């Protein structure tokens, strides 16, 4: 199994030449970025390779253990976490005023890709700190902020996001956990399931953000509040006090990400209520959660990118060393490494092209998040906020789905060894799948895209972005055959997006089911074309660099070839996806419920 090496050259290309790190570094609050960018990326790459990567396989094999409510993480995880926290990685993108380093989301995104590529089981833990810090920054009282944010930023304590209940998964309107006021706090009772790092041995305290209902709260999503429930209560002087009544009843045995615990948590089972503190106003919990979800969903998209890149690195190394078969074209009877076989190269190119496309789309979205928060110009902030909000479900849904496919391709490159755990590639395949499930399944991302992003503003955001892609496609040309082919596919993609969006807009009012029946293909269409747009930009830049005699022409030639491959093999799917949406949506609902298993009836001689 190849060890993980961060793809620094491509990261640097995307950050500098596609996502505009120089512009981001000039925004108020990000002035330090230019001076620290390269050292931060190199340090992160070294940490990922030296500390996290060596624990990836052992963590998966050992998994976590539960014993009478206590959860132990795999050997080496605690030491790695302490090193991670001491090095200041938890607070990388947290505002300097809260003790962080205040670096842009664009830098954070690249670093996050490295943590997830090196060891996704580990990477989930600090990610959850980010969610808790953001919730407190957004809506916490001054007292809560002062007590909890510094210790979450330093990594002294970790966070957990506690939404899911047995009857409330995608539909959080069904949350039943109760919160009853008692003096300056609430008594929380109920059960949460599937909570990542809800209990562990890495830190002395764990800060749970819990969704619950206060008495007489309105039914549905408008009656959900958010509470901070520490595992250990914190005394007025900031020291740790009594154990709170939150206990881990067990951990799940899972398909992947075995190095992190997925916990069932009982609140208030022993005393009638765990102590919890209201964050913000009652009944606005889901609203706060949705604001935070942008960051969490973006992070899950990046997670898919990191895992897929690791799988590509392993598949490439294997393809270079595995000797099998002969080179068909040369007629040489000597056996060759499988990378000589066209189909293996097709698989490797398919991975390489889609990984670079995911990276380009995700980092460009991160840059928009930065501009949306920090630009001094309101119009710029608004434009980038709209773009980032539109792209978040696409980055989350398309990158996580694509990552799963690419990890399957990586297993295929390994042949039979890919199916054997010893090769290590099977772990990537298992680890990748969760990305399309948690933080809202792909189906839920697609509903968000259609309902909240496409239809809510009458298609204005979608039309604006499609217009930008079309305007860019018009600038492509100059006689280079690769650029010409990329332009042709991008133009088809523009037509497909326009037609599919218009079809959904025209049908949503009269037939809501038809409008969402192909919402996942619609999300994929956006992923394929928006990432194709970024690959086309990369190709245009690469062609110009090559023409100007850039000293790194080899990198730019590879980029141009990869973008051409993407156009022919991935972007060309746009017509097929458009067809599914415009012509195929009706067939999704046509079969009655009983029609799904008519073929299981006993044989009937008609
Ligand atoms: C390993 C792991 C870690 C997790 N970590 C956390 C955590 O830290 N905190 C937390 O709160 N939760 C966590 N979860 C829970 C996770 O967020 C949920 O599992 C997820 O949101 C899906 O909910 P569900 O499992 O109830 O599936 P369901 O909601 O039952 O969905 C089942 C299927 O139905 C589809 N579906 C459901 N409703 C609709 C709809 N309206 N329209 C279209 N399709 C629909 C879904 O897309 C899915 O395909 C974790 C889960 C796992 C497995």
Question: Can you walk through the features of this model?
Answer:
With 606 residues, the protein is α+β, with helices and mostly antiparallel strands. Helix content is 56%, strand content 12%. The protein contains 19 helices and 14 strands. The chain has helices at residues 8-18, 21-24, 33-52, 56-62, 77-86, 105-118, 120-139, 142-154, 285-321, 342-374, 378-414, 425-432, 442-455, 460-475, 481-508, 512-517, 519-547, 553-569, 574-590; strands at residues 65-67, 70-72, 158-162, 178-182, 185-196, 206-212, 225-230, 232-234, 240-243, 246-251, 262-267, 274-279, 323-326, 335-337. Strands 3, 4, 5, 6, 7, 10, 11 and 12 form an 8-stranded mixed sheet that branches. Helix 10 packs antiparallel against helix 11 (378-414) and helix 11 (378-414) crosses helix 12 (425-432). The protein is globular, with a radius of gyration of 25 Å. It starts with 7 loop residues before the first helix and ends in a 16-residue tail after the last helix. The structure holds flavin-adenine dinucleotide (FAD). Residues 161-164, 169-170, 194-196, 254, 262, 434, 437-438, 440-441, 443-444, 447 line the site of flavin-adenine dinucleotide.
């Amino acid at each position: 199994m190849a060890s993980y090496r961060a793809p620094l050259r491509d990261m640097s290309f995307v950050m500098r030449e596609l996502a505009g790190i120089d512009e981001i570094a000039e925004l108020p609050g990000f002035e330090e970025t230019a001076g620290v960018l390269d050292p931060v990326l190199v340090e992160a790459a070294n940490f990922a390779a030296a500390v996290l990567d060596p624990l990836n396989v052992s963590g998966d094999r050992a998994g976590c253990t539960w014993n009478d409510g206590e959860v132990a993480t795999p050997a080496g995880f605690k030491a790695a976490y302490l090193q991670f926290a001491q090095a200041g990685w938890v607070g990388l993108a947290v505002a300097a005023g809260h003790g962080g380093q205040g670096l842009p989301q664009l830098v954070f995104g690249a670093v996050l890709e490295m943590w997830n590529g090196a060891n996704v089981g580990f990477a989930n833990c600090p990610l959850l700190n980010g969610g808790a810090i953001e919730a407190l920054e957004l809506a916490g009282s001054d007292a809560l902020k002062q007590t909890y944010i510094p210790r979450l930023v330093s990594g002294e304590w970790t966070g957990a996001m506690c939404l899911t209940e047995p009857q409330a998964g995608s539909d959080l309107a069904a949350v039943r956990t109760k919160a009853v006021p008692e003096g300056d706090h609430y008594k929380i009772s109920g059960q949460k399931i599937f909570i990542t790092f809800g209990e562990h041995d890495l830190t002395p305290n764990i800060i749970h953000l819990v969704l619950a209902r206060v008495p007489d709260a309105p039914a549905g999503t408008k009656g959900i509040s958010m509470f901070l429930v520490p595992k250990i209560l914190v005394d007025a002087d900031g020291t740790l006090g009594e154990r709170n009544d939150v206990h881990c009843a067990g951990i799940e045995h899972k398909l992947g990400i075995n190095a992190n615990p997925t916990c069932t948590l009982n609140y208030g089972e022993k005393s009638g209520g765990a102590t919890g503190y209201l964050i913000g106003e009652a009944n606005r919990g889901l609203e706060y959660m949705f604001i935070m979800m942008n960051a969490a969903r973006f992070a899950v998209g990046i997670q898919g990118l990191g895992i897929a890149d690791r799988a590509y690195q392993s598949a490439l190394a294997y393809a270079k060393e595995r000797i099998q078969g002969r080179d068909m074209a040369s007629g040489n009877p000597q056996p060759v490494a499988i990378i000589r076989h066209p189909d293996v190269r097709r698989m490797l190119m398919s991975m390489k092209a889609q990984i670079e496309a995911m990276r380009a789309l995700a980092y460009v979205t991160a840059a928009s998040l930065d501009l949306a928060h920090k630009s001094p110009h309101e119009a710029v902030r608004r434009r980038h906020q709209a773009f980032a909000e539109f792209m978040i479900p696409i980055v989350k849904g398309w990158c996580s789905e694509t990552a799963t496919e690419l990890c399957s391709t990586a297993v295929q490159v390994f042949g039979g060894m890919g199916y054997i755990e010893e090769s290590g590639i099977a772990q990537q395949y298992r680890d990748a799948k969760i990305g399309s499930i948690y933080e809202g399944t792909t189906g839920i991302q697609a509903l968000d895209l259609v309902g909240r992003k496409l239809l809510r503003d009458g298609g204005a955001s979608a039309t604006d972005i499609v217009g930008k892609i079309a305007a860019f496609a018009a600038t492509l040309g100059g006689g280079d055959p690769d650029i010409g082919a990329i332009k042709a596919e991008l133009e088809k993609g523009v037509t497909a997006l326009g037609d599919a969006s218009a079809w959904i807009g025209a049908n949503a009012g009269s037939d809501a089911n038809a409008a969402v029946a192909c919402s996942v293909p619609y999300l994929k269409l956006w992923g394929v074309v928006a990432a194709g747009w970024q690959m086309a930009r990369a190709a245009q830049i690469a062609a110009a660099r090559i023409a100007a005699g850039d000293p790194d022409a080899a990198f730019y030639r590879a980029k141009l070839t990869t973008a051409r491959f993407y156009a022919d093999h991935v972007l060309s799917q746009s017509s097929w996806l458009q067809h599914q949406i415009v012509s195929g949506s009706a067939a999704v609902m046509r079969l009655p419920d009983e029609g799904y298993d008519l073929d299981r009836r006993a044989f009937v001689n008609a």
